[in-house]
Amino acid sequence: MKKLFWLALIQLLLVLLAGCGKKSVLDEIPNTAQANYMEHGQLCKCGDTILFCDDHGLNLMKNGVVRSLNPNVVASMSEMAPRTEVIAARDNAIYWLSETYAEQYGEGNGVRIYRYDPKTGDSELVHKDVSISNTDGLLGLEDIFHLPMLTSGHINGDGGYLILEDRVIPGWDILKAIQAEADAQKLDLHLPDDYFSFALTNGNLFFNDASYKLWRFCLANHSFHCLDVDRVLSYFVFDGRLFVIPTYGADIEVFSPEGSRLQTVPVDGFGCSGSLIQDNGVLWLEGESGFLCIDSQLRTRKVNFPLADYRWTIENAILYYYENDTINELVLKPKIG
């Protein structure tokens, strides 16, 4: 037992030393990556599998049958977690989050993100946020030896996640990296401490500062640029362009990835409530009265269908929504133009 302890301790020290030269997460983001803080989660579909949460935790629906999901994960915290959340779906996986308040993590919380594979039915741990130091690199040893870990104390309302092929980068990690880069450049940039939103396309990261000004950070040369935008209610990227909603119900302004104003998309007073889904080259913006569709040619159409619940998604122009304790379907198929 002593031998095992010393071997583990040596491995721990090697990991901590290696962490001292760790690169910024900004250097690890590929130019092909895309993210929208407005991307809707809560109910996500992958193939014939749907994941969603209710008051009892994580649920799976397949072939019309709903069952509680008992995740097959290493060191799963799901039994202790006061919050479980489905956050995103990709081509062959669904991502979900478990946030645990526990004494072993000190005063605060521990966040873990898992990738669920519908083919195997297994969940794989892809992100763990339980520290404020290089103890991130413990490789699960804190679970084996029940070590008390420091918590990150990340901000509430993280603003989304960047999902890569092999990992997930939460918004709070990008916030810390952006602030560190700005400080290194002696840039007078003040980021919010309660909510951090970001969008990413073509190697350009867009974010709000604490004064709600919209900034662009170039991943290639680490340069900052403040966009010439007076008002920003919300924003997103679609088809390689930046879209800005100035105020509730206002027409949408479209910019190039470099921040040049291109044109305006009339929305006839449609008020976006803050969520979107991209589906087969069409973007769906949620509003109080339904959805606004935008295609790559910037043509629009409204679909009137107000949602009573926050759990919904759209795939192949079919709306899947939670209502009356079940998941319902509605064919949308808008005629744009």
Descriptive keywords:
337 residues; mainly beta; 11% helix; 40% strand; globular
Detailed description of the structure:
By secondary structure, the chain is mostly beta strands. 11% of the residues lie in helices and 40% in strands. It contains three helices and 26 strands. The protein has a five-stranded antiparallel sheet with strand order 1-12-13-14-15, with helices on one face. It has a four-stranded antiparallel sheet with strand order 2-3-4-5, with no helix packed on it. The chain has a four-stranded antiparallel sheet with strand order 6-7-8-9, with no helix packed on it. The longest helix has 18 residues, at 2-19. The radius of gyration is 21 Å and the shape is globular.
N- to C-terminal distance = 71 Å
Report the total helices.
3
Strand content: 35-45%
How much helicity do the residues have? 10-25%
The H-and-E topology, N to C, reads as HEEEEEEEEEHEEHEEEEEEEEEEEEEEE
- What is the tally of beta strands? 26
pLDDT < 50 stretches? 14-21, 72-81, 131-139, 146-151
Form type: globular
Strand order of the largest sheet: 1-12-13-14-15
Output the structural class. mainly beta
Q: Average the pLDDT over all residues and give the rounded result.
A: 81
Brief overview:
Helix content is 11%, strand content 40%. It is mainly β. β16 and β17 form a beta hairpin.
